[in-house]
């Protein structure tokens, strides 16, 4: 039903690159091809090579370089009159904006990308852009607004037999079920995503699916060893492909698993590691969530209650400033858990 996964963001002369290519290799090949296209005055090729450069920088956590690259790709595509390439550049910019926590900008760029993709007749960039909008809403906690879109995109991806997009949609819907307490449904969907990704040789999608399974195994089954084993397997792929962001989120989940198991010293150290990784790539959401885990771990290890309460109050402001609609619930849950306030509303921590 599903073919081998491919990377449609690697275009022009770069279509030979695999979805599993190391990002440092993608960056090197993309930069070389971009320079060659610029020397030849081939603007359309330069725009599409620049897209690969932008995506490699983004996934490596090199935010400033990624920002310059997608904008340059867009300008070059516009000069070449290549509407499809313009759409792909906007998709990259919107995805980067979401990664940086700039959600209103992400919505705007991704919506424009979907419109241009429709105009260009490029169903793939249209689908990826709509998927980006759905993921933005999910991360913000606006499940009611984006669940239907996730399901629509899943149906479209299944119909086309596109493994990578099917895996993405399954993981997004699974995360919504996990965050609303539907652990069994979430597990089944993460498991299907992992199976499809493995058969399609999509190591990135497989790593994210394993992370989701580890979360469910930890929360529902309280099986710490199995959860850590799954995260360890996912980490191998993250390191092989130099997936800086995915690796940092893997480490944050490892902190979650250790914290839930009462292994607070280990959790503290892993959260601190994840925090450092997110800071290096200027990723505000991951940074804030790692700080939350670190605060909770330190509190369990005897930190002064007043200091803990003060940092949680600051974190609430930071999370709300990022635009996470469920931020207050997350912090209130932490306060309750640590005995700092009466029981408040509850929401699941940590989407992907």
UniProtKB/TrEMBL annotation:
Source taxonomy: Bacteria, Bacillati, Actinomycetota, Actinomycetes, Kitasatosporales
One Pfam entry name: TPR_12
Listed name of the protein: Tetratricopeptide repeat protein
Domain of life: Bacteria
């Amino acid at each position: 039903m599903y073919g081998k996964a491919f990377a449609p963001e690697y275009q022009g002369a770069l279509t030979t690159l695999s979805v599993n290519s190391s990002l440092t290799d993608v960056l090197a090949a993309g930069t070389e091809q971009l320079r060659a296209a610029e020397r030849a005055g081939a603007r359309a090729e330069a725009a599409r090579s620049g897209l690969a450069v932008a995506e490699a920088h983004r996934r490596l956590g090199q935010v400033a370089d990624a920002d310059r690259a997608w904008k340059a790709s867009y300008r070059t595509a516009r000069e070449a009159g290549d509407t499809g390439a313009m759409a792909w550049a906007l998709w990259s910019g919107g995805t980067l904006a979401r990664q940086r926590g700039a959600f209103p900008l992400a919505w705007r760029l991704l919506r424009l990308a979907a419109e241009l993709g429709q105009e260009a007749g490029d169903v793939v960039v249209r689908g990826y852009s709509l998927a980006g909008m759905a993921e933005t809403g999910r991360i913000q906690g606006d499940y009611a607004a984006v669940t239907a879109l996730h399901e629509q995109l899943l149906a479209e991806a299944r119909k086309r037999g596109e493994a990578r997009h099917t895996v993405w949609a399954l993981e997004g819907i699974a995360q919504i079920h996990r965050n609303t307490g539907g652990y069994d449904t979430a597990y089944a969907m993460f498991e299907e995503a992992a199976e499809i990704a493995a058969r399609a040789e999509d190591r990135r999608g497989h790593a994210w699916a394993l992370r989701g399974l580890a979360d469910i195994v930890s929360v529902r089954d309280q099986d710490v060893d199995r959860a850590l084993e799954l995260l360890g397997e996912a980490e191998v792929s993250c390191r092989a492909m130099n997936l800086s962001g995915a690796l940092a989120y893997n480490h944050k989940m490892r902190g979650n698993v250790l914290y839930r198991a009462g292994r607070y010293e280990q959790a503290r150290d892993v959260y601190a590691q994840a925090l450092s990784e997110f800071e290096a790539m200027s990723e505000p959401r991951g940074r804030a969530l790692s700080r939350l885990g670190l605060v909770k771990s330190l509190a369990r290890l005897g930190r002064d209650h007043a200091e803990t309460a003060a940092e949680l109050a600051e974190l609430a402001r930071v999370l709300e400033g990022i635009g996470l609609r469920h931020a207050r619930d997350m912090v209130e849950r932490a306060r309750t858990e640590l005995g700092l306030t009466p029981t408040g509303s509850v929401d699941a921590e940590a989407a992907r």
